[in-house]
Amino acid sequence: MMKTSQAYPVSYSDLDPYKSSKYIALLLCGLLLIQLPLNWMYPSEVLARRSSAVEVADRAVPQAIQAFTLGLMLVYIVLTGVNPGQYGFKIGIALGLLANYMFLTTLLLSGSGLSGRLYIFIKSVYWMIGAIAFYRLCLGGALTLAHIRGTAVALIILGSCHTMVFCLSPESRIGQNAEAFLLVWCIPLLLLGRSSLWSWLLVAMASIAIIVTCKRGAMLALISGLVAYAVTSTKLSSRKFSFRKVLPGILLIGTVITVGIIWQMDNLLYRFEFWDNPDAMGSGRGFFYRVIFLEWYNSGFIQIIFGKGFFTVPSTTGKYLLDGVRAHSDWLEILHGMGLVGIGLFVFVHAMIISIVRRAWRLRHPITAPLVMAYTSFAMINVYSECVIGSVYTIFFALLLGYGSAAITTHKSTQNIYL
Questions:
Q1: Considering the domain boundaries, does residue 7 fall inside one?
Q2: Number of folded domains that form the chain
Q3: Which of 211, 193, 191 shows the shortest CA–CA distance to 201?
Q4: 3-state secondary structure (DSSP) of residue 121
Q5: Is residue 237 very low, low, confident or very high in pLDDT (cuts 50, 70, 90)?
């Protein structure tokens, strides 16, 4: 159990209902791990469109596992207190407000297709509920750093291997997600605590897998996150030349990324060939970003303030494209569906995360560099893709957020790895 500060008094029994928390923590790690191979065994329609070698399968099994995972986290939260901000988790208050407003705009403002929007809503709050549950499990000592890093190692090995096999297959199209964003979230988890040579080799493995996907968004999130990690480590070093502790790893990853980019240069040039066309750039983002914003801007006053309804962007883009596409930007998706109120709540979420980062920085806590790396990737993806709306893999960002917040709240580690 983490030693708690006087500001956040909590007893172990509060966070260990029926002495079950350790079993819940282990079960959650296992459930998160098993979902990855299940996604390969039961391919979705989206995955099947990306490769002629993949056939669509009934998704009942992986969906049932995800539903059970969500239910388990909810039961634990109910047993330990329904207040999302309880035990000093201020981010939980922001996440709770955003989730509740999502639900209201799903029920009250959305038109037809309510069942589909409710499904996306459940996927969207998956990581928010996870952050609250992980925080409490870490605070009570049931979910440990060993559990988290062990899960990250297994996911990076499995995800990297599958991604490279899938993307290098001649049947696969260029620029497919595969497990790229999963790897982006798992790398900071792997870098928690002191990083060994094996840790950096696994980061290199994940990095080359991300490059192979030729997925621009994942590559940008990876590179910006690594730069943020290196800069943070340097700034927090109190002794001259102490950056040499992480320098070999950074040089290794930089070399791997450079070699990977050279290897995939032709495919990457193909992915960037329309950047001189404002409408076609970014797989058409230039066009539908403008369409989505103007649809919101030209709507009535009530819709500008409160939104047109959660996840209504596909209906809007469907007026202009054969198949309605998502916003490919959390900010635009929230602005269109939840209005200025939703944007305000999302800014509040960012502000609460930044407050944790700042607190970690002031404490010179070992969690700081991985936390800055993860938040940098999160903030980048919010702009040009979606990790808040309908993304299941953001649960691993929630895992880092929960662990980091608990460690900072209790000052779990007084050791400064930057010395």
A1: no
A2: 1
A3: 191
A4: helix
A5: confident
Residue 54 lies inside a defined structural domain of this protein: yes
**Quick check: is 345 in a domain?**
yes
Instruction: Write out the residue range of the structural domain in which residue 144 sits.
Output: 12-410
Helix (H, G, I), strand (E, B) or coil at 2: coil
How far apart CA 217 and CA 204 sit, in angstroms, is 18
Question: pLDDT per residue over 300-327, tens digit each?
Answer: 999 999 999 999 998 888 888 756 688 9
Cα–Cα separations (whole angstroms), residue 283 to 272, 383, 386, 414: 9, 15, 15, 47
DSSP letter assigned to residue 105: H
- The set of long-range contacts for 296-303, using a CB threshold of 8 Å and a minimum separation of 24, is 296/335, 296/336, 296/339, 303/339
**3-state class (DSSP) for residue 418:** coil
Enter the tokens of residue 95.
């996440």
What percentage of the chain exceeds 70 in pLDDT? Answer: 85
Angstrom CA distances, 269 to 174, 215, 264, stand at: 11, 12, 9
CB-based contact 292:330 (threshold 8 Å): no
Vertex 186 angle, CA 330 and 90, to 5°:
60
Residue 2 lies in a domain: no
406 Cβ contact list (under 8 Å, min separation 6): 2, 135, 136, 138, 139, 412
> How many angstroms separate the CA atoms of 213 and 261, rounded?
11
Q: Is 82 helix (H, G, I), strand (E, B) or coil?
A: coil
What distance lies between CA 18 and its chain's CA centroid?
Answer: 31
User: Quick one: pLDDT at residue 317?
Assistant: 86
Question: What is the chain's Cα-based Rg?
Answer: 21
